[in-house]
Write a structure and sequence with these properties.
21% strand; alpha/beta; Rossmann fold; eight-stranded mixed β-sheet; six-stranded parallel β-sheet; single chain; Aminopeptidase
Amino acid sequence: MEKYRNIRTIAFDADDTLWVNEPIFQQTQERLKALLAPYVAPEIFDEQLYATERNNLHLFGYGVKGFTLSMIETAIQLTNGKMDGRTAQQIIGMGKEMLEHPIELLDGVEETIEALAPYYELMIITKGDLFDQESKAARSGLAGRFRHIEVVSEKDEDTYRRVFQRHGISLSQVLMVGNSLKSDILPICRLGGKAVHVPYHISWVHEQVASHQMEGHDYDEIGNLRQLIRLLNPGQRPALEDVEVLIAGDGFHLRRFSHTDIPHVARYANNANIATRLQDRFPHPYTAQDARAFIDYTLNADMESIFAIDVEGQAVGSIGLIFQPDVYSISAELGYWLGEEFWGRGIATSAVGKMVQHAFSDLKLHRVFARVFSNNGASRRVLEKAGFRLEGNAREAVMKNGKVLNLLTFGILAGE
């Protein structure tokens, strides 16, 4: 949908959006109700427990630990202080069982996260106990897909504003996805942001809102998280400013970088034989921190279109176009690097050809040029095989590793 074209970050709620949560609370509540059945009618128990939880939120916050303390307090109240230590121990045991409950991902979650991760920065914003929520994220098997995991005490306009500001995320480029109209959708709508509601069949009474409270707020609703893939359609047109394509090659393909590429980029870029052919801004040694900084840059670059060279699911290199300003805007400079163990396979030449086609067919550029050091015969051959012509030789224009070198410029025009 066009309304999501500029989205770069997708923030997900966790409980009952990514994995099962509320049914665990309700099952435990039913167990406590049965335990206290000799003392109180079922409907009175439900009302009293919720009243206690609501009154304790400002002290205990959200989550299993606060819920367990509220269960104990409710049991003491409803038994007029007659609850014995054994009953208290049973309630504490219920709380521990909740904390140790296996993580059950909701239908479509894993598929959706895998589909969106290459194109968007993903994050979690969830309420609850820090240790419990971090534990659930780790046990879910999804934690590595999320750039940030934020556990907050409340989800309101001020909280969302602070979270996005802290991470340098523009509200105009973020989409919030969650099951709670009160916590996930309404605050974002009030801030003027975009949200997608994924209803869950069970909802805690504290999270329920009257229909009139949502009137006038613009948000979409889907029945299953995997429908988010179809809604955003990332494979055909990811929500980035310049034209995005997935380019298939022989034994490789070009795609957008994601933070899951950090270890692979750090591995293949950490090579003196690559660094010696590039500008000094390409560091050596090349660390994971350098890889993260580079990928952060590629995901936010306004004047470049940068792709990962992917071989069998690993980012083994990079190729991109640097758009030129002012009267030079019909041109772009091509740059690339490739892991040494993939040299000699024709990947670099083919990738250059694919990027040139992308530049002329999709980006409607008129000229692509590349500059190489005079001692870099391999890159010169790659460019010549891809149809580039030598346009100039800037004598003694650069110094690399203590050597003064000429700088060769190669170019290709759209008609060529």
